[in-house]
Design a protein that fits this description.
Layout: H1 5-14, H2 27-30, H3 38-44, H4 47-59, H5 65-81, E1 86-91, E2 99-104, E3 106-108, E4 114-116, H6 120-124, E5 125-126, H7 138-141, E6 146-150, E7 157-159, E8 162-171, H8 180-201, E9 208-222, H9 223-227, H10 230-235, H11 260-275, E10 280-285, E11 291-296, E12 299-300, H12 301-321, E13 324-327, E14 341-349, H13 362-381, H14 383-390, E15 411-412, H15 415-426, E16 433-435, E17 446-448, E18 464-466, E19 471-473, H16 482-509, H17 514-531, H18 542-551, H19 559-562, H20 569-577, H21 583-638, H22 645-676, H23 681-708, H24 719-722
Parallel strand pairs: 1-8, 15-18, 16-17
Antiparallel strand pairs: 1-2, 3-4, 5-6, 6-8, 7-8, 9-11, 9-12, 9-13, 9-14, 10-11, 14-19, 18-19
Helix pairs in contact: 4-5, 8-16, 11-12, 13-16, 13-17, 14-16, 15-17, 16-17, 21-22, 21-23, 22-23
Bound molecules: adenosine-5'-diphosphate and magnesium ion.
Adenosine-5'-diphosphate binds at residues 211, 213, 215, 282, 295-298, 344-346, 354, 469-470.
């Protein structure tokens, strides 16, 4: 039985928005109700346990068994009140998404019955079999076993009937097998390095937080149409599909009114997010049709990242309830914008000072400039590995295309900060940095605005942009775990701050005043970043690429090659000196990355060939035989081909395209066979990079056929349907 596309389309089009029953309560009343947060800790834990747990959260002290038991007891009471029956350690392996293995809370009570149990041991540690998760050889060389251990800085939460305990996932020999472990190490490294710089300005600072505010872009497609597209179902993107006559060229989708069905989905998503303590704030239509964005209020990076993982899970579940499927793929549709996940990032002290925003006085401003410049230096030095940190088989379709940041990591400062840096270079090191306008315009003064309102102009072509009080790392992929980018960025900044502090200490030891010593240390760095990493122009142009090569920035566009940046001596030094990764871990992770790359392209290639042979060619041949019947009939009646020249042309066109598709499929299968014999993961990924290009080539004749073949016979929902029904 063939799928009747027009029936599917009609059915999808007629779907109405689910009636959303808004809760009686306000968000402020149910916000965080499913999270064992500080308020619940106060309510459910005895004072000694609470005290020990807070030390563990705030000061990084170890969790002893007695405290763990006490915490578990409190959590159990709270969880049972919410009807919880199961518990899971919730972790982030090196796959996409999170992993969980549920255990029921029941245990024998010794009298033939069962009771609900949950103790410190279950809270603190579990041993999921690590052998089915990617480990890049660590598993083989060491131990098959791995264990998960509670991360007390990320609160326990409830999903459905299950208590979820956020954990790290490591091998028995201590190597990280997940995203969370290195992220936490990088956050500690940046806190330590930044604190030691801050202390020179303000001895009261004891800790520096890294903040993350992610913006999640996504597409929604109707689930009936989705289910008729094997490529979407299996690879998350359309491997073929002719552009719709209208897509985003009228700019009429961005910020437009949200369709009713989508709005109902969003409201439910927000409500469930709020119950889980996720401060979802912004929702709007994005640039492409059926593309949307969601963003929370920013928060501490580790927690914000957990929340992003949770939101991605929630979106998938809730979308289905509304008859949609959510696409988190970076490039689900050719010809319209793909989806990213902007990572807004900043640093702030435990005394409440935002380190990437100007201060209230010259000393605060100097602190700001110090951090600002050191971040740029870190991005400059580690631009290649930062790019590698966001690279993936799927994100590759976005980078370098004319819509998203190019495959070159540079920093956008805006005119104001560029001018400030130039002025700082020219003027004596003891020139105070004033807030603009405070004392009127003065010559020989460095001035910065207190708030950057018009200065954060949005250069959409820049992958790393200063936006007034933070940097926005825009190249992160929509499906990615933010931790990949955040680990690398925080580690790079930690290393740079440590190097800077050592140089500054020398200047101070020479008897210079703090402000002079800081500026003397900063000046050569400022000169260098202005020359190399700072770029405010159009990142899409070929001239920029040539300029970037001249400046020594990394311009590699092949994803398998990009990963090599993780293991250069410079990167190894950065990651090991900050304690974020060992060299062994870096090598292992690259194996995983190459393997993932290969598998993704391999799956796409299989799906595409099958669709070409099972969907596209049969539809084309059916139309062709229909035309041939008409031609034959016409010849019979008129005794010539006169009057059916169009049919003849169409048949020729179809034959040429079908032959081309068939030949390309053969070629691709052969290329796969050859690639599959390669043992080395890097070499194999490079071979599959070639196959990724073949996929791109194969879609051309397929998309042309879609234009030629009778609409009624085309079996796959078209772009105009996938993108415009909601
Ligand atoms: P835009 O799309 O214009 O960049 P949005 O309002 O969609 O802006 O998103 C901005 C994001 O930046 C939000 O998630 C916000 O919470 C976050 N953000 C704001 N200030 C900071 C900061 N100091 N550090 C980290 N993230 C921040
Ligand atoms: Mg943004």
């Amino acid at each position: 039985m063939s799928i009747d596309r027009s029936e599917l389309v009609k059915e999808s089009f007629e779907k109405k928005a689910l009636e959303f029953k808004a809760p009686e309560a306000r968000p402020s009343e149910y916000f965080g109700e499913l999270v064992f947060d500080r308020a619940k800790m106060h309510k459910y834990l005895d004072p000694a346990t609470l005290d020990a747990l807070l030390k563990c959260i705030d000061k990084g002290e170890a969790l002893d068994r007695k405290t763990a038991d006490g915490v578990a007891e409190g959590i159990k009471t709270w969880a049972l009140e919410h009807g919880v029956t199961h518990v899971t350690h919730w972790f982030q392996p090196l796959t996409e998404g999170t992993a969980e293995k549920h255990d029921s809370l029941i245990d024998y009570d010794g009298h033939g019955g069962v009771i609900e149990t949950f103790d410190g041991k279950m809270l603190a540690q579990q041993e999921p079999d690590a052998s089915s998760f990617p480990s890049g050889g660590i598993r083989a060389t060491f131990e098959a076993r791995g264990y998960t251990a509670w991360d007390p800085t990320s609160p326990v939460f409830i999903q459905g009937d299950t208590l979820c305990i956020p954990t790290v996932f490591i091998s028995y020999t201590g190597e990280a097998l997940d995203y969370k472990t290195p992220l936490k190490k990088a956050l500690k490294a940046v806190s330590d390095a930044a604190t030691s710089v801050c202390k020179l300005f303000d001895p009261a600072v004891t800790k520096v937080y890294s903040y993350l505010g992610w913006e999640q872009e996504y597409f929604l497609v109707d689930e009936s149409l989705y289910s008729a597209r094997p490529d979407l179902m299996i690879t998350g993107r359309t491997l073929m599909g002719h552009n719709s006559s209208k897509n985003q060229q009228l700019d009429d989708h961005y910020f437009a009114a949200i369709p009713a069905r989508v709005a109902a989905f969003m409201r439910e998503l927000e409500m469930e997010g709020h119950r889980l303590g996720i401060p979802i704030k912004t929702r709007h239509n994005e640039v492409a049709p059926n593309q949307f964005e969601l963003a929370p209020i920013y928060g501490e990076t580790n927690l914000a990242n957990d929340q992003n993982q949770l939101v991605m899970n929630l979106m998938k579940i809730i979308a289905r309830e509304h008859g949609f499927v959510v696409l988190l793929h970076e490039k689900p549709f050719d010809g319209v914008n793909g989806s990213g996940k902007h990572n807004n990032w900043s640093l702030g002290t435990d005394t409440g000072r935002q380190l990437l925003a100007p201060g209230k006085d010259p000393s605060g401003n100097l602190l700001f400039v110090t951090f600002f410049v050191n971040v740029l230096a870190a991005v400059q030095k580690h631009n290649a590995v930062l790019k590698a940190s966001i690279a993936s088989a799927t994100n590759a379709h976005r980078l370098g295309a004319n819509e998203a940041p190019p495959a070159i990591v540079s920093a956008f400062l805006g005119k104001t900060m560029t001018d400030v840096l130039h002025k700082l270079l020219e003027l004596p090191s003891d020139t105070p940095i004033e807030i603009a306008g405070k004392k009127g315009q003065k010559v020989g003064l460095v001035e910065i605005p207190e708030i950057f309102v018009d200065n954060t102009d949005r250069n959409r072509t820049s992958p790393f942009a200063f936006t007034g009080n933070r940097f926005e790392f825009r190249a992160v992929g929509s499906a990615a775990n933010c931790a990949g980018a955040m680990t690398t960025l925080n580690a790079a900044v930690a290393e740079q701050l440590t190097i800077f502090k050592a140089a500054l200490d020398k200047e101070l030891a020479a008897g210079k005043a703090l402000n002079v010593a800081v500026m003397d240390t900063l000046k050569p760095i400022i000169a260098s970043v202005l020359d190399v990493v700072c770029f405010d122009g159009n990142g899409y142009t070929e001239e920029w690429k040539q300029e970037a090569i001249r400046r020594g920035l990394d311009v590699e566009t092949s994803v398998p090659e990009m990963f090599k940046a993780f293991t250069t001596p410079q990167s190894v030094r950065m990651f090991t000196s900050t304690g974020v990764y060992t060299e062994k871990e870096l090598l292992a992770r690259n194996e995983v990355k190459w393997e993932m790359y290969t598998k993704k392209v391999q799956i796409e290639s299989r799906v595409m060939v099958r669709m070409a042979l099972n969907h596209v060619i049969p539809a084309a041949l059916e139309y062709k035989s229909k035309l041939l019947r008409e031609i034959a009939a016409s010849q019979e009646v008129f005794g010539s081909l006169d009057g059916c020249s169009t049919e003849v042309e169409l048949v020729k066109k179809i034959s040429t395209l079908v032959n081309d598709i068939y030949a390309q499929c053969d070629e691709m299968v052969e290329a796969r066979k050859t690639a599959n014999h390669i043992v080395d993961e890097y070499e194999k990924a490079v071979a599959y990079h070639g196959i990724a290009d073949m996929l791109f080539k194969l879609r051309r004749p397929i998309d042309k056929l879609e234009e030629v073949v009778d609409n009624k016979l085309w079996p796959l929902p078209k772009y105009r349907e996938l993108l415009f029904i909601s």
